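WARN retry 2 of 3 for item q-0093 after timeout on previous attempt; input resubmitted unchanged.
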Amino acid sequence: MATIVLGICGSIAAYKAASVASRLVRMGHEVHCVCTPAALEFVTPLTLMTLSRNPVITTFEDETGNWVPVHIDLAQRADVLAIVPASANTMASMAHGACPNALTSLYLAYRGPVLIFPAMNGMMWEHPATQANAATLAARENHRIIGPAEDGMLACGTTGKGRLVEEELIVEEIVAALPR
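OK item q-0093 returned
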């Protein structure tokens, strides 16, 4: 089956990445989770490792054990990179080529399909800077932005656009992006 990298960012929706990883593994895919430091405030590496059945990359210090850095090795082996959830901060780093962490460094080395599933407060999503970053990313070859959901209860207690799309749709989009 396919090799899928799940990039997980700092958002309350990060817990849903664990379910996505589990579903993909049950389908027979090899799943590798790469977390931003902020993601670890919401989900633990142990949870993700147990469900993905692979070590979780959280810092460059996790990259010992092989002469090829793990973020480069995964970028070369991955069939799809899915950012679930994508924070405004990570989208900005990706749009501008900044690589302050293992996930954004992997992104710069990766050349296949990139699926970006935003999740953030609606005001953050609607901000012109975030919209410009989303437009920059959407214009890149092999990049797709799916979401955020049009309406729903957000973690801050308001309703509106910003919520991560449903897990079923995330899995469907990832599988559809895999090479045939």
